[in-house]
Amino acid sequence: MSFSTIRQLAKGKKPSSSEPSFQQGVLRVAGGTVLSLSLLASSIVAGGLVGLAISFRNLPDVRMLNTYAPTETSYIYDVKGRLLSRLHGEANREVVSLDHISPELKRAVMAIEDSHFYLHHGINPNSIGRAIWVNWKSGGVVEGASTITMQLVKNIFLSSERTVSRKLSEAVLAIRVEQVFDKDEIMEMYLNNIYWGHNNYGAQTAAQSYFNKPASKLNLAEASMMAGLIQAPENYSPFNDYQKAKERQAVVLSRMTDLGWITPQEAETARKAPLGIGKPTSWQGSKLPYVTDTVMQELGDKFGKEATLKGGMRIQTTVDYLMQKQAQAVVQRAYNNLRGRGIYARELQVSLVAVDPRTHFIKAIVGGVDYDKSQLNRATQAHRQPGSSFKPFVYYTAFASGKYTPESVVNDSPVSYRDGSGLYTPKNYGGGYSGAMSIRTALMQSRNIPAVVIGRKVGVDKVIEVCRRIGIKSPMQPVTSLPLGAGDLTPLEMANAYATFASNGWYADPTIILQVTDSRGNVLLDNTPKPQLVLDPWATASLTSVLQGVITGGTGRAANLGRPAAGKTGTTDNERNVWFVGYVPQLSTAVWIGDDANRVLGKGVTGGGNAAPIWREFMQEALKNEPVKQFHAASKFPRPKAK
Length: 643
Fold this sequence. Notes:
Helices cover 41% and strands 13% of the residues. By secondary structure, it is an alpha+beta fold. The strands form six sheets. Strands 2-1-6-14-15 form a five-stranded mixed sheet. A five-stranded antiparallel sheet has the order 8-7-19-18-17. Helix 9 (220-229) packs across helix 11. The termini are far apart.
């Protein structure tokens, strides 16, 4: 007998001729008890308990179930909808409507838990009588008489202690619930709330875990096994003891046969049916842990950790799974190569982050070489000196002032400045001086003294102002050495700042989240990009022109992609941090190499020699299907007037 027929009969409707007769079906749920007597007895007991309810005025108002929302698992997906991770607290749950739960599961659950469900008014007098007799004989509560409604109110409102007063409260609340909600609503709440073992709450999550399919697709064999779990989920779990799970399944199928809800042949077929058992899903690790951690950080700032873990969110990220996997593989190979070349820094790390300049969406983020050993996300949490990769911010400021062009001459000669800490005398990497040169040449060769000189002339406070405009939030002091990367920045800040150069001055806050909805599809967060023009187009295009020269003929030649690209190397004093940050019109990427304890990496380790090849390898993979695009020419924009 189908679930829908059982429901129709209980509501006084006649079954179709193709279904078993009423006497063969519903009347048998009482084990021979006539339906009218069952309803009469139920009414008598219900009436007595309503009177008793006067003593339970402090019980919860069951109408709150109208707005009750159980905790739900949140899901993280990549930009193309691939599932990356599940986020949840204690309860791993996905709520679905009753129509999205297999009729086979509904029948099986009713058969083993409450075959009178569509006949009673919240309590089952036959079960109560039997339980009272058994408990009186034993001198305590050893047998329950809980209906599905009583189980529901116990799980939501009451404790699990086995006392007479708790059982009475349970009965009173069950009657109240049945006065407010119809049977289908109660069944839906029940199937979404009960515990199915292995941290799975609700039929949908359990079905996905045990059989790797949604609850709507469960067949009779799977449904009867799942229904059997409710009494003692871990004890009957097929993950723990498959044979015991099969024995419990047989009990459920026998009960369904006795009730006339299935035929003996259907029961036998279900018993013999092969079961494709899945695996526990509740505490599986993320497929992309650095992505998940970055999502958690961003969501925590907007919604709080509690809502993120229990709110049933559907989080679509901006990351492409395949590009992220490529980035992780590139970083791992780079680490192995660095070790092979004799870089023995004890806590050597490599980090990479890529941002789309058109949207400022994070496309890939790798916070380290081995997440299992260290969960620190260096792409967002490690603040390190950027060295010469900071110089483009200085030269952009100079171009935007209207006083300088890429061909303006600057002297690379000894200088000293009195700073807050005393006399500051900058030196070039490797020593020596080259005399007068253009800004273009100075940046291509990464000469330090010209950057400090220009920084002093335009004002380091102006440089900091530009950095703030393009999203750098890390603390920076207006010291003379700032043009050489004296402040500590993160790889994400660098990649996003360079993304603004790549878009010729258009900026948006970086994000790893495209959209967040609740489990019903309501949009909670929409990160549709809203870029703003924050930099001067001529100055930005001029800077990009110079940074192209860094790759084609300067310190970044190892980053040459064979297509228009711009970027800058960075190496700090004593080779403690090395960088390469660069971009094409479609993608901006920062690569950092360093030691977690900020130890020296080794003599001769540089951004051009070590970080640039990593950048090149990743960009070649990431841009395989991207067309070659040209940068904007400075000649297309008016040059700013000198201020």
